[in-house]
């Protein structure tokens, strides 16, 4: 079966995305159906968003009920559902306060503003945040400046001042930047780099422990971007919990609303009391509808999908090692955030080949397949994912001249 023929995309839409020629009309769990009724195994979950799977009936019922009751009132007034969500997120994360916005980039914007307040409080005129090479933090001006990808920044200068970049997973680089720069006030880091293809530190989550120690020594904020790693994706609610540390600032979004757009910035410690009335805000932040969607999502995630992500992640990673190890394929990640790294210059053609075969996957950073399936994936579906993708990869590699050792 081939990909369905769709009419050309309307020129009325700004061409900001290189879209694949397929559209979906229905979803259920880890499965999607296109306009021709063809079924796909979805290893993308809307780019790490639909952790509870597509069309989760409990989330759908909560959204429908809330939409029929009260959608929006504004932050001029108290929003009990927003307070309930903040209580739950603080309880789950160990953080002290939550701010709600609508996306990941906004959650990071709030983090960057907090870093600046922290710096100004200490009398630093140009507060500077350490950010990493190959990072991704969003597309607003400050977050694209923080992002470690020249292609994303190209054409948008002048960029925002107050950032300094070091390689990911390199503590010495941080120490040497610190030695020559008294303006540093914070580190912004992804526990696992997602957009650049699931890159982990050499010592895994202990990297965060090391960063925590450096920040403590220097009175910097440790700001952890959990937009992709959070909400159960790596097998803990937040990835920093694997390291047993508490950041000063946590940004999250994506999986928080299972597809309903909501983001949050959580604060603790030195960052806990930096924002006061008037310092930050957004019209739609934490509406009754968004808060209800996120509340039910977090409650459902805590009932089992996070433990499932840990178990299925191990199963899938081992499955790929068994099926593809002989081809020089490496596997990296945690929980259901998995990178499958192929020994070729580019794995990009696999996206279309897999789609034709009824599997949706992402290829990042040339040769890294990035797998982010819903956290509710079953054992049978996990095995199917491994077998189907391994068969595709073997065919692709032999066409590229790569043979098993
Ligand atoms: C780690 C990380 N930070 C920030 C963002 C930006 O989030 P959003 O697209 O919701 O603005 C993303 C999105 O991919 C991300 O993966």
Structure write-up:
36% of the residues lie in helices and 16% in strands. Strands 4-10-9-8-7-5-6 form a seven-stranded mixed beta sheet, sandwiched between helices. Strands 1-2-3-13 form a four-stranded mixed beta sheet. The mean pLDDT is 97. It has 405 residues and is an alpha/beta fold. A hairpin with a 2-residue loop joins β11 (330-334) and β12 (337-341). The protein has 13 helices and 15 strands. The radius of gyration is 21 Å and the shape is globular. The chain folds into two domains: 24-42 and 304-399, Alpha-Beta Complex (Aspartate Aminotransferase, domain 1); 58-301, Type I PLP-dependent aspartate aminotransferase-like (Major domain) (Aspartate Aminotransferase, domain 2), CATH 3.40.640.10. α11 runs parallel beside α13 (379-399). The longest helix is centred in the C-terminal third of the chain and has 21 residues, at 379-399. The relative contact order is 0.16. Bound molecules: pyridoxal-5'-phosphate (PLP). Pyridoxal-5'-phosphate binds next to α4.
Structural descriptors:
405 residues; Aspartate Aminotransferase, domain 1; 2 domains; binds pyridoxal-5'-phosphate; 16% strand; seven-stranded mixed β-sheet; 36% helix; Aspartate Aminotransferase, domain 2; four-stranded mixed β-sheet
Note the main sheet.
7 strands, mixed
Q: What's the end-to-end separation, in Å?
A: 33 Å
Count of separate DSSP helical elements: 13
* Count of folded domains: 2
- Within the CATH hierarchy, at the fold level, what is the topology of the largest domain? Aspartate Aminotransferase, domain 2
